[in-house]
UniProtKB/TrEMBL annotation:
Molecular function terms, GO-annotated: DNA binding; sigma factor activity
One Pfam family named in its UniProt record: Sigma70_r2
Originating organism: Streptomyces agglomeratus
Family recorded in the similarity comment: Belongs to the sigma-70 factor family. ECF subfamily.
Domain RNA polymerase sigma factor 70 region 4 type: 99-150
Lineage, highest ranks first: Bacteria, Bacillati, Actinomycetota, Actinomycetes, Kitasatosporales
SUPFAM superfamilies noted in UniProt: Sigma2 domain of RNA polymerase sigma factors, Sigma3 and sigma4 domains of RNA polymerase sigma factors
NCBIfam families, A to Z: SigE-fam_strep, sigma70-ECF
Keyword list, A-Z: DNA-binding, Sigma factor, Transcription, Transcription regulation
GO biological process, one term: DNA-templated transcription initiation
Domain RNA polymerase sigma-70 region, residue spans: 10-76
Family matches, as InterPro entries: RNA_pol_sigma-70-like, RNA_pol_sigma-70_dom, RNA_pol_sigma-E_actinobac, RNA_pol_sigma70_ECF_CS, RNA_pol_sigma70_r2, RNA_pol_sigma70_r4_t2, RNA_pol_sigma_r2, RNA_pol_sigma_r3/r4-like
Protein name listed in UniProt: RNA polymerase sigma factor
Length: 165
């Protein structure tokens, strides 16, 4: 199967296969994931698929097996947690974390990434520049502007009221 034939095969069968796996699995996202993974595996075997005569059946079978494999992994994990008394309780994020994430979402994406890499991942300006492809000057600018924006966004309203009164 040539690249063009595989692309055409994908275009004509992907949604149908997702629909079939959705009915089999009862979970649309899981169906999309396993069908996509099956097509990825089929891509590397596209010459064999052509000779098999039933490439759609091959993709469907691989997708089903992937789903079954995922079920087994989840089941083993659930069994292991049950033997240990359940997963550790996670209290979830506190108000400070929610406020910080909300404020970070207000930043432009590049600033948000730079601030996160610096303050949460403890990367230096040089390391951030290497990872993001930005100049060190641009990284510094993003950090300065990001800190200023966060300072404004994270102001405690009670403090503002005290100063205004």
């Amino acid at each position: 199967m040539t690249v063009e034939e595989f692309e055409e095969f994908y275009a004509h069968t992907a949604s149908r296969l997702i629909g079939q796996l959705y009915v089999m699995l009862g979970d649309l996202h899981e169906a999309q994931d396993v069908v996509q993974e099956a097509f990825v595996r089929g891509w590397s075997r596209r010459r064999q698929l052509d000779g098999a005569g039933e490439p759609e059946a091959w993709i469907r079978t691989v997708a089903w097996r992937l789903a079954v494999s995922r079920w087994r992994v989840r089941r083993r994990s659930a069994d292991a947690w049950q033997r240990r008394g359940g997963p550790p309780s996670d209290p979830g994020p506190g108000p400070e974390q929610v406020a910080l994430v909300s404020a970070l979402r207000e930043l432009p994406p590049k600033q948000r990434r730079t601030v996160t890499l610096h303050y949460l991942c403890d990367l230096t300006v040089v390391q951030i520049a290497a990872e993001t492809g930005l100049s060190t000057g641009t990284v510094k600018t993003h950090l300065v502007r990001g800190r200023a924006a966060l300072s404004h966004l994270l102001q405690d309203p009670r403090t503002e009221e005290a100063h205004g009164a």
